[in-house]
Design brief:
10% strand; 410 residues; 9 strands; single chain; alpha+beta; Hypothetical protein af1432
Length: 410
């Protein structure tokens, strides 16, 4: 196929028409590694609470790339020099930034390949693709790893105010129908500038930044960390752990899933990537459907709960419950379901969940004033709650079967 035929236009429900900026980006889109993202849900099991949340990592990656190209155009209008090579590298880096996500995205983070994050796996994929594309992704890898001298290019794809966050907030808001998460991504992008080799925001964009931070906080507690979403996703995690505990070679499951359940993953990075590239949401769900009839009563119970949306009850608490209270619930669950105490602990547990919309320990969001002064958003904002948003908030969630956990208002 000629290079001119690779400049395609895609229709996106959020932004309208998205242009594929170069033949290299087209080839990356067509690669099987990237096509796998069509089968990785963006929001895990959030559709069990918000039925429209069925969009994928494929959608998000395209949207983030589109916003990155818009940001580069805006910066060039302000006479920030960005070469064509740098533009293509940013497009490739943001397009591939989530390629390492596994089934149900963050729900099984660090679990499918124990101890390895999706960011690390994304880097593995990008390094392999760089070899396959004969070094054409070398600059993209440098930017992704924050090794390129012009650091603001890395901040476009990974910082406190990056195109990744701008897209997922707007996209997740659209598909869940949660209007509180709406952000004006276009205005924020037009307000971006570069000062002291970092991405900054023109001071007149202060209210757009405030709205972005508040929207992010609301989306975390109302969508990403919604207590019923947490119930579903922790249940998924317990299924993975129990399946590994009772694994037998004769256990029914898709072949793509077996190495991740048996624990027989190859130590070589390239072989690991090839196994991982075959794995998606459908494999894990097919395994769950098989295990619903498993002879292990606990695994069967866990799978039935997820498949038929009989999720664990949840109570949000101000502090961690006492060990005596937990043990009481464990014993009640064991008696109610005919399980051992150890098995019942799969169904009774506490999770501490923390979130802060703005973390000043990382890249700060600086406002650029006409005199060249840079001021942190937490100091400049009119709203006192912006400073509050920079402090982590921790909530405790108690999970147990609804039959032993009377529901109450939280």
């Amino acid at each position: 196929m000629s290079a001119t035929n690779k400049h395609k236009i895609l229709n996106d429900p959020i932004y309208g028409f998205i242009t594929i900026p170069s033949p290299l980006i087209f080839d990356l889109l067509e690669h099987s590694y990237f096509q796998r993202l069509r089968r990785i849900s963006q929001l895990g099991l959030t559709y069990l609470v918000y039925p429209g949340a069925y969009h994928t990592r494929f959608h998000h990656a395209l949207g983030a790339m589109h916003l990155a190209m818009q940001a580069i155009y805006s910066l060039r209008q302000k006479e920030v020099a960005i070469s064509e090579e740098e533009q293509e590298a940013v497009a490739a880096a943001i397009l591939l930034h989530d390629i390492g996500h596994g089934p149900f995205s963050h729900a099984l983070e660090n679990e499918m390949v124990p101890g390895i994050s999706h960011e690390t796996l994304s880097e593995y994929f990008m390094a392999h693709l760089n070899e396959e594309f004969q070094g054409r992704l070398s600059l993209a890898l440098q930017i992704f790893r924050d090794e390129y001298p012009r650091r603001f290019l890395h901040q476009l794809i990974s910082s406190q105010l990056d195109v990744d966050r701008l897209d997922y907030l707007r996209r997740d808001c659209f598909y869940t129908g949660v209007s509180e998460g709406q952000v004006n991504a276009e205005r924020l992008i037009t307000m971006l500038h570069v000062a002291q080799d970092q991405i900054v925001v023109d001071a007149k964009g202060i209210y757009s930044v405030e709205k972005f931070l508040v929207a992010r906080r609301l989306m975390y507690w109302q969508v990403y960390l919604h207590k019923t979403v947490l119930s579903a996703e922790y249940l998924l995690l317990q299924i993975l752990r129990r399946a590994r505990e009772v694994y037998q070679p004769t256990m029914a499951m898709p072949s793509a899933l077996r190495p991740f359940i048996s624990g027989q993953l190859p130590p070589e990075r390239q072989e690991l990537i090839e196994h991982y590239a075959r794995l998606d949401d459908a494999d894990f769900m097919a395994g769950i459907k098989e295990w619903e009839q498993h002879e292990d009563a606990l695994l069967s119970n866990l799978c039935q709960r997820l498949l038929h949306r009989r999720l664990l009850g949840v109570q949000r608490l101000a502090s961690r419950p006492s060990k005596a209270r937990l043990e009481e619930l464990v014993q009640q669950t064991a008696l109610h379901l005919g399980l051992s105490s150890e098995e019942a602990r799969y169904l009774v547990f506490v999770q501490a969940v923390s979130n802060n919309a703005y973390d000043p320990r990382k890249d700060r969001i600086h406002l650029l004033y006409r005199d060249g002064k840079l001021i942190d958003i937490a100091e400049a904002a009119d709203q006192l709650n912006i400073s509050a948003l920079s402090k982590p908030v921790t909530k405790f969630f108690l999970f147990a079967p609804k039959a032993v956990l009377p529901q109450r208002r939280t």
